[in-house]
Amino acid sequence: MSRRWLLNSGAILLGFTGFVSGSHRVHAQQAAASPPSASDHPLAWVLKFAHEERAYLQRAVRDFRCRVTKRERIDGELQDYYYIDMRIREEGRVDEQVTQPLSVLLEFLGPPDVAGRRALFVAGRNDDKLLVRKGGRRFSYLVIDIDPFGESVKRESLMPITEIGFSHLLDRTIHTLQQDMAADPSGDNTVVEHITTATINRRPCRMLRITHPLRRDGLQFFSASMAIDSELHVPVRFDVYDWPESPGQEPPLTAEFTYTDVKLNVNLDDSVFAPAALRGP
């Protein structure tokens, strides 16, 4: 079962007690009532909300920088936490014409075997290759170009660099919500929670969670959650869990991402995403 389309989620009742992931504390004080929906399906209003958030991001966010803390299960093994400073210039379009290509620069702070690594991707440039300064303990300054969809990349990340960015994240959310509604048209295997008073690193957030209690064809996860910063209107946390192997067991974590120190529209120019960014200390 593919885990590439990392989900994000929606709302109804149930208390949410709060949790700690790495150094990032997430706390929800109370649950809110489900907003009214034009459809009986519990995901209908979540899909509408996701469309609205995506439209807002496409209008309002040109670029951003942040730190991301991520952990993913790859080939059955839960990886160490990765700490990455991220600079993103979102794709710009006018009437389906790309006016600004997606541009990504990642700087890896840990774990030690990748510390110092830098990864650069600009859609349509460098032969659509991912340029990587190796980092780590040996040959750290070696720069290579690799296929962004190649096996070496998949061994370290479920999310391709070509789909990084808040707009792409909402695109995947919308796609997965539509798949879920098709796979569970009655909504009887879909539980949606909505918490309006969550906080992540002391910032107010709106948290959405979807749970599918029973494994069924077409459904990709047991539960998935997303937290959206209430002031910035960008996703700052999401996690995905697979179904437990047997009743009573904890569901295994598939992936979790937390975004901190998010700064929007910082005017990242071409020099930030030039190959020269891979050189130097």
Strand content: 35-45%
Total tally of structural domains: 1
CATH superfamily: Lipoprotein localisation LolA/LolB/LppX
How would you sum up the major sheet? 14 strands, antiparallel
Average of per-residue pLDDT values: 83
Give the name of the CATH architecture.
Clam
What is the helix tally? 3
Q: Helicity range of the residues? A: 10-25%
Count of extended strands: 16
Structural class: mainly beta
User: Over the alpha carbons, how many angstroms does the gyration radius reach?
Assistant: 19 Å
Could you characterize the architecture of this molecule?
By secondary structure, the chain is mostly beta strands. It has one domain (19-278): Lipoprotein localisation LolA/LolB/LppX (outer membrane lipoprotein receptor (LolB), chain A, Clam). The protein has helices at 44-60, 151-154, 166-183; strands spanning 19-21, 24-28, 63-74, 77-78, 82-89, 92-94, 97-100, 103-110, 118-122, 130-133, 143-146, 191-200, 203-211, 223-229, 235-241, 253-264. Strands 1, 2, 3, 4, 5, 8, 9, 10, 11, 12, 13, 14, 15 and 16 form a 14-stranded antiparallel β-sheet that branches. It is globular and about 55 Å long. It starts with 18 loop residues before the first strand and ends in a 17-residue tail after the last strand. 31% of the residues are buried. Mean pLDDT is 83; it is low at 1-38.
